[in-house]
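Shipment paperwork, digital attachment
Item: protein structure file
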Amino acid sequence: MTREEAGNGASDKAGTISRALRRAIIERALEPGAALPEDALGERFGVSRTLARHALAQLAAEGLVELRRNRSAVVATPSWQEARDTFDIRIELERLVVRQLAGRLSKAQLATLRAHVDAEDAARGGPDAISIRLATEFHILLAQMTESPILIRYVSELSYRCCLILSLYSRPHSSECGVNEHRLLIEALESGDADKVMSLMHHHLDSVAERALVAEAKPRGRDIMAILAPYAEAPPPTAKAARKRPLKAAE
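Attachment content:
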């Protein structure tokens, strides 16, 4: 780590790299199994290999990256069974999230959720990768509304890992069903029917898994420097900005 990096906040720089890589993985720019060489990352983001290694370690803790014995790193490639188990664990966590939120959301919070789903609906027709990212943001938004650090952390990590899974095991499907399921969840949350909203969440995520866990996608084999160019040059959009972009709707 250089003196300049230490002075400018190494953790901030590592966080910037990990956020950029996370978004590239979520949006399927980086596919499962893609190599993540420290030297290439350092060059792309203008940091030392040590900082690049710290960023990779953070993503490895989230299950998005696999660190190997020779100090190389690749985007994680979960097995089909690991993928199914991840969805099953996520289902139980998110049932807990909506149970806590049922009947307790403010008008402003409900409006925020509806605005997000409206953005998903208006964005229909865009890239599938963006569709998955928007769907993930909806679920993380729900977790954030619990104000529980534990739920926020684990729902976020599992949701990101599910994005990775969807890039590995997927098939085309209509985004309309996902948007409609999100709207039903909001209605049940507003009504305060905890049993109903837990059942809806279970059905929704189980349906996402069933629609997705079908076949392995073929790798595209693009150069990592070209893949990461847009992620290194621009910060990830805020949730508000994301809702304004004409993207595709999601599950």
